[in-house]
Specification:
By secondary structure, this protein is of the alpha/beta class. It is 41% helix and 23% strand. It is elongated and about 55 Å long.
């Protein structure tokens, strides 16, 4: 599936005007629309106004830093699932962990390699396109199945949440489990002897296996009490940390 870059809006955030200029030139030259902000507060307003397809933000900024901006986007914005890339001048593993816990998708050190940045931007946008394309297909209107290498469990739950589907998502991987949804909201999860959020957080770490979703009434007691968005964001943090900080 080709990416139509001219339709994609990218919000760039940095208090250094030279960095903003370089990012703007690189992204516009590659075909993207670009919106820019000099701090987190301005960026949050622009994000809710323009609904960008991706955000690239510095971490250390006055008024509202990048970590807080990412938290606000994830927890208190109209685009909580937008891909988010952090930029930093510091090679600090603790800061990197904080960034992923805030909900970042990628983390890059300055000075940023232009080619690498554009590759990561395109990769994240293609992933989002794939998810939207699948959610708009007729398969979602009925039961569907597939491979976890093509769609992760978190992406599947996001899609079912957006489409307000009720049913059961069965997982067959190195362990088996099931995730129950009502009107798109996470309702329950089971995985061997685990239940609820513990089961869900374990299931989302599986990258190989198959899935099968069946539209049906959910006949199980609720064991996920937290909000669907909070559970999804925590699952994303768990996945990011496991991928980037393997022992």
């Amino acid at each position: 599936m080709a990416l139509n870059k001219s339709e994609k809006k990218i919000l760039i955030v940095d208090d250094n005007p030279n960095v903003l200029k370089l990012l703007h030139i690189s992204l516009v030259k590659d075909g993207y629309q670009v919106i820019q902000a000099e701090n987190g507060e301005e960026a949050l307003k622009l994000a809710n106004k323009h609904h960008p397809d991706l955000i690239i933000s510095d971490i250390m900024m006055p008024q509202m830093d990048g970590i807080e901006l990412c938290w606000m986007i994830r927890e208190n914005s109209e685009i909580p699932l937008v891909p988010f890339i952090f930029l930093t001048s510091f090679d600090d593993s603790e800061m990197e962990v904080r960034g992923f816990r805030a909900g970042a998708d990628e983390y890059m050190n300055k000075p940023v390699d232009r080619k690498e940045l554009l590759e990561r931007v395109e990769e994240l946008l293609m992933r989002t396109n794939k998810l939207h394309s699948f959610s708009n297909s007729t398969d979602v209107q009925k039961g569907f199945s597939g491979d976890l290498k093509d769609l992760s469990i978190v992406e599947l739950v996001q899609m079912l949440n957006l489409n307000k589907k009720s049913g059961v998502l069965y997982i067959k991987a190195k362990e088996q489990g099931a995730i129950y949804l009502k009107d798109g909201h996470l309702y329950a999860a089971v995985n061997d002897d685990k239940k609820g959020e513990e089961a869900f957080y374990n299931l989302v770490t599986f990258e190989e296996g198959t899935f099968n979703f069946e539209l049906k009434d959910v006949g199980i007691d609720q064991n996920i009490k937290n909000s669907t968005m909070n559970v999804i964001m925590e699952a994303c943090r768990i996945m990011d940390e496991s991928r980037h900080f393997k022992p």
